[in-house]
Design brief:
The longest helix has 19 residues, at 14-32. The protein has helices at 14-32, 61-69, 90-99, 160-165, 171-178, 195-199, 223-227, 242-254, 294-309, 318-326, and strands at 2-8, 39-43, 73-78, 107-109, 118-122, 130-134, 142-148, 150-152, 156-158, 184-185, 205-207, 211-213, 233-234, 258-265, 287-291, 334-338. 29% of the residues lie in helices and 21% in strands. Helix 8 packs across helix 10 (318-326). The strands form five sheets. It has an eight-stranded mixed β-sheet, sandwiched between helices. Strands 5-6 form a two-stranded antiparallel ribbon. It has two domains: 2-177 and 239-338, Rossmann fold; 185-234, Alpha-Beta Plaits. The chain is an alpha/beta fold and 340 residues long. It has ten helices and 16 strands. The protein binds iron/sulfur cluster (2 copies). The site of one iron/sulfur cluster (SF4) has 15 residues, from helix 6.
Length: 340
Amino acid sequence: MSKVYFIKNPQSDYSQLGKDALKLLKKIVSETGHEFAKEVPLKVHFGEKGNKTFIPPEAFTAIINHLKEEGVSPFYIESNVLYKGSRTTTDVHLKTAKDHGFTQIPIIIADGEIGTEYEEIEINKDHIKKCKIGKEYGKFQQFIVLSHFKGHIEAGFGGALKQLGMGFAARTGKLEQHSGISPVVRAKKCISCGICVEECNYDAIEVLDTAVIDDDKCVGCAGCIAVCPEGAIVNTWDGKNFLEKLAEYAYGAARNKDIIYITFVHNITKDCDCSSKEMKLIAENIGVLAGKDPVALDTACLDLVQQNSGEKLFEKGRPTLKHAEKIGLGTMDYQLIELP
Ligand code: SF4
Ligand code: SF4
């Protein structure tokens, strides 16, 4: 059984929620004898441009200040996203982060300028043999993963496991989870500019009437998705076993790392912070939860949301928890410890 710590606080005062998060962090540190490294990356999600319900930077200020007082240098870490948007490449991603107020500490985008830099982590699980994790993540052993618990169209919900599995993955790793390997060209959007041909290091694209991808040559690096100026190259989102692949990527991302997970169960929307539209809230705010077992933490968040709402919200994502438990990432058996 894993311990999950909880402070109930439905108020949308992010400065106070940040203090609650710090209280949970200190509790875990004292319980486990955790000693911080000199540099500690804070894994966050900056929110897509237009999204209004991501967890704002004020919620992280108390933790940042505490780490600095302890002589630790914190910085934000993230990776580029799979699809065309305001976080596709490092330059626009950093601008979005800045526009959303994430200016307190430096930011590292872990998978390179266009999301193609990664290290392979061999896990040999049912669906994934080697995870492609953003290169910079490999330089650090400790992380604080700060998550927002809310719905997700494919994963059911997004929390700590999604931050690990999708959030740590380089673009090619995201593609591997979401689909087969090759992206596809939407012929109507393609203007035959050839930029993707120059980007592809595998000679897998040629421009005939429009660009065409050779599935036999494509290794799924997803670089072409990032560089196409027309957004004509897309992922097919037809991934089989997506929920289990997500769990396996989370396993690979967390392997041999020392991670404290803190999750804000606030601003609960049907879709995730990758959505650029303004969304209405579909459940009551609950508070902040934390622990060192991401499976236990996500299970506790899911159970609390369902108990509080009286509905089976986000149940679609429970298979991810079961598979994560099966492969040894953590346990769904948790003890919820409420702090005042
Ligand atoms: S970069 Fe995009 S628009 Fe240009 S040829 Fe490739 S798919 Fe077509
Ligand atoms: S995903 Fe990578 S390997 Fe495949 S066509 Fe695009 S750039 Fe080439």
